[in-house]
Specification:
This protein is about 30% helix and about 25% strand. The protein is α/β, with parallel strands linked by helices. It has a domain of about 150 residues: Vaccinia Virus protein VP39 (Rossmann fold), CATH 3.40.50. The chain has a seven-stranded mixed sheet. Strand 6, helix 6 and strand 7 form a beta-alpha-beta unit. It is globular. The chain starts with 5 loop residues before the first helix and ends in a 12-residue tail after the last strand. The relative contact order is 0.13. The structure holds S-adenosyl-L-homocysteine (SAH). S-adenosyl-L-homocysteine (SAH) binds next to strand 2, helix 4 and strand 4. The site of S-adenosyl-L-homocysteine has 23 residues, from strand 2, helix 4 and strand 4.
Length: about 220
């Protein structure tokens, strides 16, 4: 915990208490929220709100998910140390950094070059083993497949086939599916051709869009 800013430190402790009250029980998730400082993933104007449970604006109209959503997805993912985790939608890098702090080997894909260029150096400082890629998440990240876990942090129109293919048998994918709003789904791949699916409530994410873009 490097921060000299005791106000933010106090706010972070209260945020973690709030996560417990909202049903986050995985100590590995809660520990990661203690280790990572969310304000460092935001522009300094937003630091006073960094530990509120709200989604905040990033560059180019994207958002950093609210802490309780990051914690909820991380908990559903059932990560143990050393697992290979693929994230679609790097954005600010905060979710990737939480997974890193949970001990995962993280691979993350972003389709917008602006966010990719901004987040990559930040992650190399704060979560140095995370592998970043500028690309279209609908295609996954085949170079390092298969993955033990896949997490999608944008609203997917359907479950992308390539992501199921890049998951190990027995692996878990957590993905919000839907157009206007999304249902959080947890998929467990039970064989090369089958998966089980379970729903975990309604959420609103920015959309998962096809093709990488130069903005
Ligand atoms: N995990 C991020 C959330 C950012 S919002 C965080 O912790 O800040 C979702 C991100 O998904 C946006 O940055 C958006 O550009 C990205 N995205 C949308 N469609 C995508 C796609 N097909 N491939 C990769 N990233 C995508």
């Amino acid at each position: 915990m490097a921060t000299e800013n005791y106000l933010l430190l106090g706010q972070k402790k209260r945020m973690i208490e709030g996560l417990r009250e909202k049903g986050i029980t995985d100590e590995n998730v809660l520990g990661a929220f203690d280790k990572m400082e969310r304000h460092l993933f935001l522009e300094s104007l937003l630091w006073p709100r960094a530990y509120e449970d709200e989604a905040l604006k990033l560059a180019t109209d994207q958002t950093i998910s609210k802490p309780s959503t990051v914690a909820f997805q991380s908990q559903l993912l059932e990560v143990s140390k050393g697992m290979k985790v693929l994230e679609i939608g790097t954005g600010s890098g905060f979710q990737a950094a939480i997974l890193y702090a949970m001990g995962a080997r993280v691979f993350t894909v972003e389709r917008q070059i602006t966010l990719f260029n901004r987040t990559r150096p930040l992650l190399s400082k704060l979560a140095p083993t995370v592998v970043t890629r500028y690309g279209d998440g609908f295609k996954g990240f085949p170079q390092f497949a298969p993955y033990d876990r896949v997490i999608v942090t944008c609203g997917a129109p359907e479950i992308p086939q390539a992501l199921v293919e890049q998951l190990v048998v027995g692996g878990i994918m957590v993905i919000p599916v839907g157009e206007e709003s999304q249902v959080m789904k947890r998929i467990v791949k039970i064989s090369d051709s089958e998966y089980d699916e379970e729903d975990f409530g309604d959420f609103v994410f920015v959309p998962m869009l096809k093709e990488r873009v130069r903005r």
